[in-house]
Amino acid sequence: MQMQGTIPRDFIDQLLARVNLVDVINARVPLKKAGATYKACCPFHQEKTPSFNVNPTKQFYHCFGCGAHGDAISFLVEHDGLSFVEAVEVLAQQVGMTVPRQKLSKQQQKVQQQRIERERDLYDVSHAVAKFYRQQLREHSSSDEAKAYLRQRGLTPEVAKRFIIGFAPPGWSTLVPGLSADVRLTQQLIELGLLVEKSEDKVYDRFRHRIMFPIRNGKGQVIAFGGRVLSEEDKPKYLNSPESPIFHKSDTLYGLYEWRKSRDASGYLIVVEGYMDVVALAQFGVDNAVATLGTAITESHCQILFNQVDTLMFCFDGDRAGLNAAWKALELVLPFIGGQRSVKFLFLAEGEDPDSTVRQLGAQGFFDLVEDALPLSDFWMQSLLTKLSVSTAHPEGRQQLVTLAQPYIMRATALYQYLLLELLAQQVDLPVWRLERQMGLKTGYTPLSQGGRVAKNSVSPRHHNASSSVVKPSMSLAKYLVRILLIKPQWAGQLALVLGNLLQATKNQDARMLLALLKCYQVTPPQQTQLLAEFTDYYASQLQYIEAQPLPDTDEELSPMFENMAIRLADELEKALLKRQVHQGDALDDLQEFLTERKK
């Protein structure tokens, strides 16, 4: 039984100090020692090259691929789907500690204990109701119509079992006699919204003559139900449980638990509008679909989804209602995009939904549609352009476009905000810095020289001279850029724009070091401090030498030197990449020639 009170902060600190993070993670994800740390392929996103790093000294994990990070408690919360308190209790049990609670008054203890017992009982009741509906699908005399409907939709018994699909029989009162409900159980069924009070002593079933879809939380507990009519004449077509002490629509996604159990390896989630869509897609092997429950997507939904994957695919009907829903999703999701995160939009033919589409096209046909989904930035700009009263060939059209785009750019953050500004700048033929000034923004990513991205021909001879007086052959350009970023982190955004893709493609160790530092600066300050500590620990021996190198004293000298070095390093990396591609091409030509000769 849970103990009373809240868990003191100092106990959390003591627990984390005693827990061996390597043991906790290794029990779930096989780790391999790599110097002073441990590595593995990240359990939170799909990858082939290990970028998940566990530091036993700091008791901290971080993935340089998706940005997942935290301590032993956060790992259990994210990986095992536990609540914070449950994660603390699991870890405490492993190290033989007793979880203390800050003392509550007797009244507070009583209220807390009542809440715990009440919720536990409601979980038990929901589970019993799910079993009852499942049994009715198998045995009730009126279930033939429900079985025929499921067969017609192509659902196999295996999928029906996986989603615990059941049947609510016709009639106004089947739950109470079916569960042999006494007064207390009847009251709990009312609290869950499964029974509706007609008068003080009369109740009736909320769900009647419907296919039933139990809704589960992250731990697999049934918390609510959705019901679909069997006759198209009945209304409403879909009916959900009302909110209850254990069910909150704004932070619940249908199919999320089933997806976690499916071991799907796609690396993204498809957000659809109904639970029948989720089940139909699963029937065809598309296991990575989830659905909101009769409500538009919320910030809580976004946070939950991005805690699981880096890429979201919103799937909507192609009619006006679908476009409106997509636009609302776009507005909501903008602040969440950063780092590896991305969002796409898939619009189906008008009158079609994921269920009908996958049955017509099959799994591969549906995946082909997914491949052609619109990135958020494309959908955003295309939609804005359709709202103009005059084209962007005219000043009035460009003015309108800037005005329409501004609220959405203001919702975006960090580098993504700058990139949307850059896209807008291309449409209205203005430099980014002018749009920043117009909107009162300072993204920190506009090149120091102002007027857009640094061009290779923008560096004057004075810039070359400024850098040549400092740069020595004894240290690479990448290391000099590391040296500068350590004292000028605000310049990281500019450098990421110039070098980002090239750094990702290179195998040069100094350049990889620079890439690691740039990734540290891409996260928000609380996590940034921890990541920088990881960075300095890992590269300690090299940083001692790097930080000893002299630099100009003023920004007037340092800025052109920085830009010049960035351009020169970009040239070096481009040449190295081109050389590698040519070499690979020659090797392929040689192989092709060999195979041709062998066939003769």
From TrEMBL:
<dbReference type="InterPro" id="IPR037068">
    <property type="entry name" value="DNA_primase_core_N_sf"/>
</dbReference>
<dbReference type="InterPro" id="IPR013264">
    <property type="entry name" value="DNAG_N"/>
</dbReference>
<keyword id="KW-0863">Zinc-finger</keyword>
<dbReference type="GO" id="GO:0000428">
    <property type="term" value="C:DNA-directed RNA polymerase complex"/>
</dbReference>
<dbReference type="InterPro" id="IPR002694">
    <property type="entry name" value="Znf_CHC2"/>
</dbReference>
<dbReference type="GO" id="GO:0008270">
    <property type="term" value="F:zinc ion binding"/>
</dbReference>
<dbReference type="InterPro" id="IPR006295">
    <property type="entry name" value="DNA_primase_DnaG"/>
</dbReference>
<dbReference type="GO" id="GO:0003677">
    <property type="term" value="F:DNA binding"/>
</dbReference>
<dbReference type="InterPro" id="IPR016136">
    <property type="entry name" value="DNA_helicase_N/primase_C"/>
</dbReference>
<comment type="subunit">
    <text>Monomer. Interacts with DnaB.</text>
</comment>
<keyword id="KW-0548">Nucleotidyltransferase</keyword>
<dbReference type="InterPro" id="IPR030846">
    <property type="entry name" value="DnaG_bac"/>
</dbReference>
<dbReference type="GO" id="GO:0005737">
    <property type="term" value="C:cytoplasm"/>
</dbReference>
<dbReference type="InterPro" id="IPR034151">
    <property type="entry name" value="TOPRIM_DnaG_bac"/>
</dbReference>
<dbReference type="GO" id="GO:0006269">
    <property type="term" value="P:DNA replication, synthesis of primer"/>
</dbReference>
<protein>
    <recommendedName>
        <fullName>DNA primase</fullName>
        <ecNumber>2.7.7.101</ecNumber>
    </recommendedName>
</protein>
<keyword id="KW-0235">DNA replication</keyword>
<comment type="function">
    <text>RNA polymerase that catalyzes the synthesis of short RNA molecules used as primers for DNA polymerase during DNA replication.</text>
</comment>
<dbReference type="Pfam" id="PF13155">
    <property type="entry name" value="Toprim_2"/>
</dbReference>
<feature type="domain" description="Toprim">
    <location>
        <begin position="267"/>
        <end position="349"/>
    </location>
</feature>
<dbReference type="InterPro" id="IPR050219">
    <property type="entry name" value="DnaG_primase"/>
</dbReference>
<keyword id="KW-0808">Transferase</keyword>
<keyword id="KW-0460">Magnesium</keyword>
<keyword id="KW-0639">Primosome</keyword>
<dbReference type="InterPro" id="IPR036977">
    <property type="entry name" value="DNA_primase_Znf_CHC2"/>
</dbReference>
<keyword id="KW-0238">DNA-binding</keyword>
<dbReference type="Pfam" id="PF01807">
    <property type="entry name" value="Zn_ribbon_DnaG"/>
</dbReference>
<keyword id="KW-0862">Zinc</keyword>
<feature type="zinc finger region" description="CHC2-type">
    <location>
        <begin position="42"/>
        <end position="66"/>
    </location>
</feature>
<dbReference type="GO" id="GO:0003899">
    <property type="term" value="F:DNA-directed RNA polymerase activity"/>
</dbReference>
<comment type="similarity">
    <text>Belongs to the DnaG primase family.</text>
</comment>
<keyword id="KW-0804">Transcription</keyword>
<dbReference type="InterPro" id="IPR006171">
    <property type="entry name" value="TOPRIM_dom"/>
</dbReference>
<keyword id="KW-0240">DNA-directed RNA polymerase</keyword>
<dbReference type="GO" id="GO:1990077">
    <property type="term" value="C:primosome complex"/>
</dbReference>
<keyword id="KW-0479">Metal-binding</keyword>
<dbReference type="Pfam" id="PF08275">
    <property type="entry name" value="DNAG_N"/>
</dbReference>
